[in-house]
Design brief:
Layout lengths: L6 H8 L4 E2 L5 E2 L6 E9 L5 H7 L7 E5 L7 E3 L1 H9 L4 E8 L2 H4 L5 E7 L11 E2 L3 E3 L2 E3 L4 E5 L2 E5 L6
Parallel strand pairs: 3-4, 4-6, 5-6, 6-7
Antiparallel strand pairs: 1-12, 2-7, 3-8, 3-11, 9-10, 11-12
Length: about 160
Amino acid sequence: MAEVPATADLIDAHGDLLASCETQLRQFGARRAFQGTIVTVTCREDNALVKRLLGTPGQGRVLVVDGGGSLRSALMGDLIAASAARNGWAGVVINGAVRDTAQLAHIDLGIKALGSNPRKSAKTGAGAVDVPVAFGGVVFDPGAWLCSDEDGIVVAAEKPGA
């Protein structure tokens, strides 16, 4: 796995070429810094699409999930996160909740979310895949590049040069 650049250094070097997510997401996974090409899903209180996507080869990509900011139910837990890690996903960013947080801390996957709730989500498959999603003052476009560390999340149309 390639070394992940520090988001603060990226902002210093590239400034306005990068968008910086203003939403204050918490770290949950064992991988504290991660980067990759964005795949998106929008779903509110229903994780069927999240589970399906993370069960496919990740190829170092990052899944950005817009759960509408709902903390009513979790969109990912330890079983789905473990599947994502096995399938080679670099990380998951969730504008919503996760569960099984003690277990998530030991899974080699970048995981950021608003918070946690032990309640399961629905499983109807409601939502959309590979559509632009927006939160925290950033539009996350499918195919764009994301970098995340303890300082936050930055996004660019493509990975900036060194």
